[in-house]
From TrEMBL:
The keyword Transferase applies. Residues 7-113 form the Glycosyltransferase 2-like domain. The keyword Transcription regulation does not apply. InterPro entries: Glyco_trans_2-like (IPR001173), Nucleotide-diphossugar_trans (IPR029044). GO terms for molecular function: glycosyltransferase activity. Keywords: Glycosyltransferase, Transferase. This is Glycosyl transferase family 2.
Protein backbone atom coordinates (compact mmCIF):
# COMPACT_ATOMS: atom_id res chain seq x y z
CA UNK A 1 0.00 0.00 0.00
CA UNK A 2 1.31 3.47 -0.90
CA UNK A 3 1.70 5.56 2.23
CA UNK A 4 -0.33 8.52 1.00
CA UNK A 5 -1.61 11.08 3.46
CA UNK A 6 -5.34 10.92 4.25
CA UNK A 7 -7.33 13.92 5.46
CA UNK A 8 -10.28 13.03 7.70
CA UNK A 9 -12.80 15.88 7.61
CA UNK A 10 -15.31 16.16 10.45
CA UNK A 11 -17.96 18.92 10.28
CA UNK A 12 -18.97 19.91 13.81
CA UNK A 13 -22.21 21.58 14.86
CA UNK A 14 -23.65 21.26 18.37
CA UNK A 15 -22.46 17.71 19.04
CA UNK A 16 -20.66 18.34 22.33
CA UNK A 17 -21.86 15.02 23.78
CA UNK A 18 -20.47 13.01 20.86
CA UNK A 19 -17.48 14.79 19.34
CA UNK A 20 -14.85 13.43 21.73
CA UNK A 21 -15.79 9.82 20.95
CA UNK A 22 -15.82 10.66 17.24
CA UNK A 23 -12.38 12.27 17.27
CA UNK A 24 -10.91 9.61 19.55
CA UNK A 25 -11.98 6.94 17.06
CA UNK A 26 -10.36 8.92 14.23
CA UNK A 27 -7.12 9.34 16.17
CA UNK A 28 -7.01 5.59 16.90
CA UNK A 29 -6.58 4.63 13.23
CA UNK A 30 -4.25 1.76 12.40
CA UNK A 31 -3.12 3.81 9.39
CA UNK A 32 -0.75 6.45 10.69
CA UNK A 33 -0.36 9.04 7.92
CA UNK A 34 -3.50 11.04 8.64
CA UNK A 35 -4.63 14.51 9.55
CA UNK A 36 -7.96 15.25 11.20
CA UNK A 37 -9.69 18.51 10.26
CA UNK A 38 -12.48 19.63 12.59
CA UNK A 39 -14.62 22.35 11.03
CA UNK A 40 -16.67 24.02 13.75
CA UNK A 41 -19.72 25.42 11.98
CA UNK A 42 -20.59 28.07 14.55
CA UNK A 43 -21.56 25.69 17.36
CA UNK A 44 -23.31 27.22 20.38
CA UNK A 45 -23.12 24.29 22.82
CA UNK A 46 -19.40 24.21 23.59
CA UNK A 47 -18.46 21.91 20.71
CA UNK A 48 -15.95 24.46 19.40
CA UNK A 49 -14.12 24.63 22.72
CA UNK A 50 -14.12 20.83 22.96
CA UNK A 51 -12.53 20.69 19.49
CA UNK A 52 -9.75 23.01 20.66
CA UNK A 53 -9.13 20.79 23.68
CA UNK A 54 -8.92 17.70 21.48
CA UNK A 55 -6.47 19.44 19.13
CA UNK A 56 -4.17 20.15 22.07
CA UNK A 57 -4.02 16.42 22.80
CA UNK A 58 -2.99 15.29 19.29
CA UNK A 59 -0.86 17.24 16.83
CA UNK A 60 -2.63 15.58 13.89
CA UNK A 61 -5.87 17.39 14.77
CA UNK A 62 -6.55 20.83 13.28
CA UNK A 63 -9.54 23.02 14.09
CA UNK A 64 -11.17 25.59 11.81
CA UNK A 65 -13.79 27.85 13.39
CA UNK A 66 -16.29 29.53 11.09
CA UNK A 67 -19.75 31.02 11.15
CA UNK A 68 -22.82 28.83 10.82
CA UNK A 69 -23.16 28.28 7.07
CA UNK A 70 -24.24 24.64 7.05
CA UNK A 71 -22.65 21.24 6.70
CA UNK A 72 -21.96 21.62 2.96
CA UNK A 73 -19.91 24.77 3.49
CA UNK A 74 -18.13 23.13 6.44
CA UNK A 75 -17.13 20.11 4.36
CA UNK A 76 -16.00 22.33 1.47
CA UNK A 77 -13.86 24.31 3.90
CA UNK A 78 -12.30 21.04 5.03
CA UNK A 79 -11.58 19.97 1.45
CA UNK A 80 -9.86 23.27 0.65
CA UNK A 81 -7.75 23.02 3.80
CA UNK A 82 -6.82 19.37 3.30
CA UNK A 83 -3.16 18.50 2.83
CA UNK A 84 -3.76 14.81 2.11
CA UNK A 85 -3.86 13.02 -1.23
CA UNK A 86 -7.08 11.34 -0.07
CA UNK A 87 -10.16 12.61 1.74
CA UNK A 88 -12.76 10.86 3.86
CA UNK A 89 -15.53 12.15 6.09
CA UNK A 90 -17.01 11.38 9.49
CA UNK A 91 -20.09 13.09 10.92
CA UNK A 92 -19.47 14.62 14.34
CA UNK A 93 -21.98 12.42 16.15
CA UNK A 94 -20.78 9.16 14.59
CA UNK A 95 -17.61 7.14 15.05
CA UNK A 96 -15.45 4.71 13.08
CA UNK A 97 -13.57 1.44 13.46
CA UNK A 98 -9.80 1.58 13.92
CA UNK A 99 -9.26 0.31 10.36
CA UNK A 100 -11.63 2.83 8.72
CA UNK A 101 -8.88 4.59 6.76
CA UNK A 102 -6.67 1.55 6.22
CA UNK A 103 -9.53 -0.49 4.76
CA UNK A 104 -10.94 2.18 2.43
CA UNK A 105 -7.53 3.37 1.23
CA UNK A 106 -6.37 -0.20 0.65
CA UNK A 107 -9.55 -0.92 -1.30
CA UNK A 108 -9.09 2.12 -3.55
CA UNK A 109 -5.38 1.50 -4.12
CA UNK A 110 -5.85 -2.21 -4.83
CA UNK A 111 -8.09 -1.34 -7.78
CA UNK A 112 -6.29 1.93 -8.63
CA UNK A 113 -9.66 3.67 -8.30
CA UNK A 114 -10.22 7.34 -7.41
CA UNK A 115 -12.89 6.40 -4.89
CA UNK A 116 -13.94 3.46 -2.75
CA UNK A 117 -17.07 2.65 -0.77
CA UNK A 118 -17.98 0.01 1.76
CA UNK A 119 -21.59 -1.14 1.65
CA UNK A 120 -21.88 -2.19 5.27
CA UNK A 121 -22.62 0.57 7.78
CA UNK A 122 -23.99 -0.08 11.26
CA UNK A 123 -27.14 1.98 11.82
CA UNK A 124 -29.76 2.03 14.58
CA UNK A 125 -31.77 -0.44 12.52
CA UNK A 126 -29.12 -2.82 11.20
CA UNK A 127 -26.20 -4.74 12.60
CA UNK A 128 -23.05 -4.92 10.54
CA UNK A 129 -20.76 -7.67 9.37
CA UNK A 130 -17.03 -7.73 9.86
CA UNK A 131 -16.14 -9.25 6.48
CA UNK A 132 -18.81 -10.19 4.00
CA UNK A 133 -18.87 -10.64 0.26
CA UNK A 134 -16.17 -9.95 -2.30
CA UNK A 135 -14.48 -6.72 -3.25
CA UNK A 136 -15.84 -5.54 -6.59
CA UNK A 137 -15.12 -2.97 -9.25
CA UNK A 138 -18.08 -0.94 -10.56
CA UNK A 139 -18.39 1.07 -13.76
CA UNK A 140 -19.73 4.63 -13.52
CA UNK A 141 -23.13 3.45 -14.76
CA UNK A 142 -23.30 0.59 -12.27
CA UNK A 143 -22.23 2.82 -9.38
CA UNK A 144 -24.65 5.61 -10.29
CA UNK A 145 -27.55 3.17 -10.46
CA UNK A 146 -26.50 1.63 -7.14
CA UNK A 147 -26.43 5.09 -5.57
CA UNK A 148 -29.79 6.16 -6.98
CA UNK A 149 -31.35 2.88 -5.84
CA UNK A 150 -29.93 3.24 -2.31
CA UNK A 151 -27.74 0.16 -2.72
CA UNK A 152 -24.82 2.35 -1.65
CA UNK A 153 -25.03 4.42 1.55
CA UNK A 154 -26.17 7.82 0.26
CA UNK A 155 -24.12 9.82 2.77
CA UNK A 156 -20.45 10.67 2.22
CA UNK A 157 -19.38 8.58 5.19
CA UNK A 158 -18.03 5.05 4.50
CA UNK A 159 -16.20 6.33 1.40
CA UNK A 160 -12.80 7.69 0.44
CA UNK A 161 -12.00 10.10 -2.40
CA UNK A 162 -8.75 11.02 -4.12
CA UNK A 163 -8.38 14.78 -3.76
CA UNK A 164 -6.87 15.44 -7.18
CA UNK A 165 -9.88 13.65 -8.71
CA UNK A 166 -12.29 15.94 -6.84
CA UNK A 167 -10.28 19.00 -7.87
CA UNK A 168 -9.97 18.01 -11.53
CA UNK A 169 -13.72 17.45 -11.81
CA UNK A 170 -14.59 20.48 -9.65
CA UNK A 171 -16.66 18.30 -7.33
CA UNK A 172 -17.77 20.08 -4.18
CA UNK A 173 -20.88 20.16 -2.02
CA UNK A 174 -23.78 22.37 -3.12
CA UNK A 175 -23.93 24.92 -0.32
CA UNK A 176 -27.57 25.83 -0.92
CA UNK A 177 -28.66 22.31 0.05
CA UNK A 178 -29.46 21.62 3.70
CA UNK A 179 -30.53 18.04 3.01
CA UNK A 180 -29.42 15.67 0.27
CA UNK A 181 -26.05 17.39 -0.08
CA UNK A 182 -24.10 14.16 0.38
CA UNK A 183 -26.37 12.31 -2.04
CA UNK A 184 -25.67 14.94 -4.71
CA UNK A 185 -21.93 14.86 -4.04
CA UNK A 186 -21.85 11.07 -4.35
CA UNK A 187 -23.85 11.06 -7.58
CA UNK A 188 -21.33 13.45 -9.13
CA UNK A 189 -18.45 11.25 -7.97
CA UNK A 190 -19.96 8.01 -9.26
CA UNK A 191 -20.58 9.50 -12.71
CA UNK A 192 -17.12 11.07 -13.05
CA UNK A 193 -14.96 8.27 -11.64
CA UNK A 194 -13.62 5.90 -14.29
CA UNK A 195 -14.05 3.04 -11.81
CA UNK A 196 -15.32 2.60 -8.27
CA UNK A 197 -13.96 0.09 -5.75
CA UNK A 198 -16.66 -1.52 -3.62
CA UNK A 199 -16.21 -3.56 -0.44
CA UNK A 200 -18.40 -4.77 2.41
CA UNK A 201 -16.36 -4.54 5.60
CA UNK A 202 -17.96 -2.71 8.53
CA UNK A 203 -15.90 0.34 9.46
CA UNK A 204 -18.51 3.07 10.09
CA UNK A 205 -20.98 3.45 12.93
CA UNK A 206 -23.89 5.74 12.15
CA UNK A 207 -25.05 6.62 15.63
CA UNK A 208 -28.46 8.07 16.40
CA UNK A 209 -28.79 6.74 19.91
CA UNK A 210 -30.47 9.44 21.96
CA UNK A 211 -33.35 7.45 23.53
CA UNK A 212 -35.36 10.64 23.97
CA UNK A 213 -35.30 11.66 20.32
CA UNK A 214 -37.92 9.87 18.27
CA UNK A 215 -38.27 12.28 15.36
CA UNK A 216 -41.88 12.90 14.46
CA UNK A 217 -41.65 16.61 13.59
CA UNK A 218 -42.09 17.76 10.01
CA UNK A 219 -39.93 20.65 8.81
CA UNK A 220 -41.57 21.91 5.62
CA UNK A 221 -38.65 24.14 4.63
CA UNK A 222 -36.18 21.29 5.09
CA UNK A 223 -38.22 18.93 2.95
CA UNK A 224 -38.85 21.51 0.26
CA UNK A 225 -35.07 21.75 0.09
CA UNK A 226 -34.84 17.95 0.02
CA UNK A 227 -37.18 17.76 -2.96
CA UNK A 228 -35.10 20.51 -4.59
CA UNK A 229 -31.99 18.39 -3.97
CA UNK A 230 -33.50 15.61 -6.09
CA UNK A 231 -34.06 18.08 -8.92
CA UNK A 232 -30.40 19.10 -8.63
CA UNK A 233 -29.39 15.45 -9.01
CA UNK A 234 -31.51 15.26 -12.17
CA UNK A 235 -29.96 18.43 -13.59
CA UNK A 236 -26.48 17.00 -13.08
CA UNK A 237 -27.03 13.54 -14.54
CA UNK A 238 -24.37 13.37 -17.23
CA UNK A 239 -25.00 9.65 -17.75
CA UNK A 240 -28.45 9.33 -19.29
CA UNK A 241 -29.96 6.06 -20.46
CA UNK A 242 -33.06 4.06 -19.61
CA UNK A 243 -31.45 2.25 -16.67
CA UNK A 244 -30.16 5.47 -15.14
CA UNK A 245 -33.49 7.26 -15.58
CA UNK A 246 -35.42 4.35 -14.05
CA UNK A 247 -33.06 4.48 -11.08
CA UNK A 248 -33.55 8.25 -10.79
CA UNK A 249 -37.32 7.79 -10.77
CA UNK A 250 -36.90 5.49 -7.78
CA UNK A 251 -34.92 8.23 -6.00
CA UNK A 252 -37.68 10.72 -6.85
CA UNK A 253 -40.31 8.35 -5.44
CA UNK A 254 -38.29 7.44 -2.35
CA UNK A 255 -37.69 11.08 -1.40
CA UNK A 256 -41.39 11.87 -1.66
CA UNK A 257 -42.30 8.84 0.45
CA UNK A 258 -39.81 9.89 3.14
CA UNK A 259 -41.45 13.32 3.29
CA UNK A 260 -44.91 11.72 3.29
CA UNK A 261 -43.94 9.48 6.22
CA UNK A 262 -43.00 12.47 8.37
CA UNK A 263 -46.13 14.40 7.43
CA UNK A 264 -48.24 11.46 8.63
CA UNK A 265 -46.25 10.91 11.83
CA UNK A 266 -46.42 14.60 12.73
CA UNK A 267 -50.16 14.76 11.93
CA UNK A 268 -49.47 17.65 9.57
CA UNK A 269 -51.81 16.64 6.74
CA UNK A 270 -54.00 19.72 7.24
CA UNK A 271 -51.23 22.20 8.05
CA UNK A 272 -49.24 21.28 4.94
CA UNK A 273 -52.09 20.20 2.71
CA UNK A 274 -50.41 20.92 -0.62
CA UNK A 275 -47.24 19.02 0.25
CA UNK A 276 -49.27 16.18 1.74
CA UNK A 277 -51.31 15.78 -1.44
CA UNK A 278 -48.22 16.01 -3.65
CA UNK A 279 -46.21 13.45 -1.68
CA UNK A 280 -49.18 11.08 -1.44
CA UNK A 281 -49.78 11.37 -5.18
CA UNK A 282 -46.15 10.58 -6.04
CA UNK A 283 -46.04 7.81 -3.43
CA UNK A 284 -48.94 5.98 -5.04
CA UNK A 285 -48.21 6.84 -8.67
CA UNK A 286 -44.66 5.47 -8.74
CA UNK A 287 -44.75 2.83 -5.99
CA UNK A 288 -44.87 -0.18 -8.28
CA UNK A 289 -42.03 1.28 -10.35
CA UNK A 290 -39.78 -0.02 -7.57
CA UNK A 291 -40.40 -3.55 -8.81
CA UNK A 292 -38.49 -2.78 -12.02
CA UNK A 293 -35.27 -1.43 -10.49
CA UNK A 294 -32.48 -3.22 -8.58
CA UNK A 295 -33.54 -2.40 -5.02
CA UNK A 296 -33.62 -4.76 -2.06
CA UNK A 297 -36.51 -7.15 -1.47
CA UNK A 298 -37.35 -5.21 1.68
CA UNK A 299 -37.75 -2.00 -0.33
CA UNK A 300 -39.88 -3.77 -2.94
CA UNK A 301 -42.20 -4.98 -0.17
CA UNK A 302 -42.31 -1.48 1.26
CA UNK A 303 -43.30 -0.12 -2.15
CA UNK A 304 -46.14 -2.61 -2.53
CA UNK A 305 -47.48 -1.72 0.91
CA UNK A 306 -47.17 2.00 0.14
CA UNK A 307 -49.24 1.45 -2.99
CA UNK A 308 -51.99 -0.45 -1.15
CA UNK A 309 -52.10 1.31 2.21
CA UNK A 310 -49.47 4.06 2.47
CA UNK A 311 -50.30 5.19 6.01
CA UNK A 312 -49.13 1.97 7.64
CA UNK A 313 -45.44 2.30 6.72
CA UNK A 314 -44.70 5.46 8.76
CA UNK A 315 -46.06 3.85 11.91
CA UNK A 316 -44.14 0.63 11.33
CA UNK A 317 -40.96 2.68 10.98
CA UNK A 318 -41.73 4.65 14.14
CA UNK A 319 -42.39 1.45 16.06
CA UNK A 320 -39.02 0.06 14.98
CA UNK A 321 -37.24 3.28 15.97
CA UNK A 322 -38.91 3.33 19.39
CA UNK A 323 -37.99 -0.30 19.97
CA UNK A 324 -34.37 0.50 19.17
CA UNK A 325 -34.32 3.52 21.48
CA UNK A 326 -35.87 1.47 24.29
CA UNK A 327 -33.10 -1.10 23.87
CA UNK A 328 -30.47 1.65 23.96
CA UNK A 329 -32.03 3.10 27.11
CA UNK A 330 -32.08 -0.32 28.79
CA UNK A 331 -28.45 -0.96 27.87
CA UNK A 332 -27.49 2.41 29.28
CA UNK A 333 -29.29 1.73 32.56
CA UNK A 334 -27.68 -1.69 32.84
CA UNK A 335 -24.28 -0.15 32.30
CA UNK A 336 -24.91 2.40 35.05
CA UNK A 337 -25.63 -0.20 37.69
Amino acid sequence: MKYDKVSIIIPVFNVVNYIEHCVTSACAQTYGNIEIILVDDGSSDGSGQKCDELAEQDARVRVIHKGNHGVSAARNTGIEAALGQWICFIDGDDYVASDYVEYLLGLAQTFNAPTAVTLDVITPWKKGNQATGKNLLYTPEQATIAMLCYRFPIGVYSKIFRKDFLDANKIRFFEDLIIGEGFNFNCLVMQKAEKIAVGSHTVYYYRKDNPNSVTTKFDAQKWENGLHAINVIRENLSLENKKIMRAFLYTYWRTHTDAYDLIILSHSECKYRDMYEKTLSVTRKYALHSLSVPVSTQNKIRAIIMFIYPKIIPYLMLRRRRKHNAEVSTQGNDGAR
